[in-house]
Amino acid sequence: MKRRVVAISLGCPAGVGPEVAVLHIDGTMSDGESLEVPIVGAKLAGSKTLSRQIRALREHMEVNYLGATQLLEVVLPTLLAAGCGHVSLMASVAGYRGLPKALAYGPTKAALNNLAEILYLDLHDRGLGVSVINPGFVDTPMTAGNDFAMPALMQPDAAARAILAGWAAGRYEMHFPRRFTLLMKLLRHLGERSYFFAVRRVTQP
């Protein structure tokens, strides 16, 4: 059986909803092929001010989270019928816990992390692999618009190698750069008061 890797990035050009991206992969499977690791991700430029982030929250949710669920609605029946395949969700360390200036973005990535855990529990015993990708800061046109410091900024080719290595090793989660993401993981275990204090110390001038 041949294996096909399909990388899909969802975006929202003017007047185009995330459902359009779903249509591009509908019906691409053929006999004797196994669809391996469709990357369910999204990209949407962040808003600068708090009021704009509040207005953008619904738009981010429609693209980052609902766009991914629409894609899964198309892909999963084929994978389940074949009894094999792998789904990998593109989330972010911004979904680990609440962060400043992530009002529109962070909640959608938290939702994707939760979704990945549910899919793993529901699909693993049915022969499907599930994984989640939680990058830190990667040097892309989207992050170029950030107006805050981005520690351990990673180049895209290094991020791609980390993802491929994680898939090859059969990891559930790929997170990178590890010198930054391991710190973010440690912060997840702090109580609320300690966490808020630590984040304020790091992010406030």
SSE layout and pairings?
Layout lengths: L1 E9 L8 H5 L9 E10 L7 H33 L3 E5 L15 H18 L5 E7 L20 H14 L3 E4 L1 H10 L4 H12 L2
Parallel strand pairs: 1-2, 2-3, 3-4, 4-5
Largest sheet: 5 strands, parallel
Distance N terminus to C terminus?
Answer: 56 Å
**What is the share of helical residues?**
40-55%
State the order of secondary-structure elements, H for helix, E for strand.
EHEHEHEHEHH
DSSP, total strands? 5
Low-pLDDT parts are 8-29
Q: Strand arrangement, largest sheet?
A: 1-2-3-4-5
Radius of gyration over C-alpha positions, nearest whole angstrom: 17 Å
Could you characterize the architecture of this molecule?
- This protein is of the alpha/beta class.
- 45% of the residues lie in helices and 17% in strands.
- The chain has six helices and five strands, in the order E-H-E-H-E-H-E-H-E-H-H.
- It is globular.
- The model is unreliable at 8-29 (pLDDT under 50).
